[in-house]
Specification:
alpha+beta; Translation Initiation Factor IF3; four-stranded mixed beta sheet; 3 helices; about 35% helix; about 15% strand; globular
């Protein structure tokens, strides 16, 4: 399922207030990083990732690999910060509740 531009813009607006939850270390894109991102997406849906040195990969390429590995969508890439989103239908939502990424 691909997102509309309007949905993506709304998530970008929410992402401005988020702090990074996942940090890629000096070892780059590792299995542990993918696992950590997957866990964060399961509970929060919208997650910011700060990238370290990725070797030959650009931030956009790294973002694409991250999103592909955890079945998420890249919302935005700004410098070394990537925001990804994955909807979790198991999170209970009530009308008027804050989204799961607002803690």
């Amino acid at each position: 399922m691909t997102m509309t531009g309007k949905e993506r813009a709304e998530l970008r607006a929410h992402a401005n207030r988020l702090t990074a939850t996942v940090h890629a270390g000096q070892h780059g894109l590792t299995g542990a990083l993918f696992h950590s991102l997957d866990d964060a997406l399961r509970t929060r849906e919208l997650v910011k990732v700060v990238l370290g040195k990725q070797g030959e990969l650009s931030a956009k390429e790294a973002a694409g690999q991250l999103a592909g590995a955890v079945n998420a969508e890249v919302i935005q890439v700004i410098g070394k910060t990537v925001t990804v989103y994955r909807h979790n239908p198991q999170i209970e939502r009530k009308r008027g509740d804050a989204p799961p990424w607002v803690v």
